[in-house]
Amino acid sequence: MIWIEFIILIGMILIGSQMKGIGLGVMGMVGLLIFIFVFNLKPTDPPLDVMLIIMAIVTTAATLQASGGLDYLVQLAEKIIRSNPSNITFIAPFTVYFLCLFAGTAHIVYSLLPIISEVSAKKRIRPERPLSISVIASHIALTGSPMSAATAALVVILAYPGALVNIMSICIPASIIGILIGCFSVFKKGKELNDDPIFIEKMQDPEFAQTMNTSSEGTQAQLKPGAKTSVLIFGCAIILIVIAGAFPALVPHFSPGEKTLAVNADGSLTMVTVISVVTLSAAAAMMLITKTSTTEVTKASLFTSMASAVVSVFGVVWMSSTFMHANNDTMQKALGGIVSEHPWTFAIAVFIMGALMFSQAATTKTMMPLGIALGLPPSALIAIFPAVNSDFVLPGYPTLLAAINFDRTGSTKIGKFVINHSFLVPGVVTISVAIAVGFLIGSFVL
Question: Is 0.70 surpassed by the pTM of this model?
């Protein structure tokens, strides 16, 4: 019976991922309906904690965008990328990584992809190289960012004081080393641009050739008056969340009682409460101080993407957690032995699920509780955490498609067999190295 249920689970995820947008959410609900009414599986609690975190964090990021803060950050990143075009294969991904690490979203990379493509092409560096690893860097930045829904979800799942600091202290250095090795993996990828037959053919077009041979610095749009202030407020929110995670004694405590979404059984505040209160208060401060209207926030592209993220997590995680809970004993018997002896093997399961779900937060919420049930220690789960970034395997994620479209030279592409695309090698290399380094660092940190 478990195999039939598993086929239904995977089938709903595959259909939902093809539908894009809220497809994962609605198909997740279809799967849950089948589990409840056909297989008589008892539903688990819906993933309200992750949904609340996504709403709070994305609203704050959207406020930063509406107030001009993201534009200011992008301008800073553009200056760094253009400062040393010869080394763009290394400079671009690390610039993207730290920018996304700060903002807590990979979607900010859209503003930098055309710049990376233009600078590398004019320098006759194959754009596929910096574009591919930069996209991977934007994804892996979320596993370690205190402002990302995926990291917040893992903090809630681990549920011990200092979990956020441990995640950051392991995942950030591990990801940096992973990106560095990923840069080397694409440093000589493909033919040099001047030897590429596709580029040579394109250069036969005088108009295209003129754009490739003309030096053009980006014309920076005028920033809104409160742009820098909003970045400062956003940064303060990050610091407060990290302090709350590192020093739980500083956070108010209440009388012990029943555990709720807001308060733990010991009377301490949950990270859902801390993150929601701090981030949305920061959003309010940005609106008031920079005079950014609520209408501007709700029209921001990040805010409109929130509904899709929340619905997707709602459906697919609820369906997955119901399946996992109903078959928990069977999976522990099947996987318990090998995972306990070789904890890294659990990363393969997480990687596969992440490739299907197209959501780091949803994959985290679905798979990490299973890791705890299998007896994996927090250090192992944190080391494995970067594996949730496997949404690049099937080339349908928006950041991948954007990079392909922005590369006018045609070097960044999807291969004949679909899966052999420009992002596969740097993605697998970066994540594999990050996991290996994470296990090494975790042995000292925890």
Answer: yes
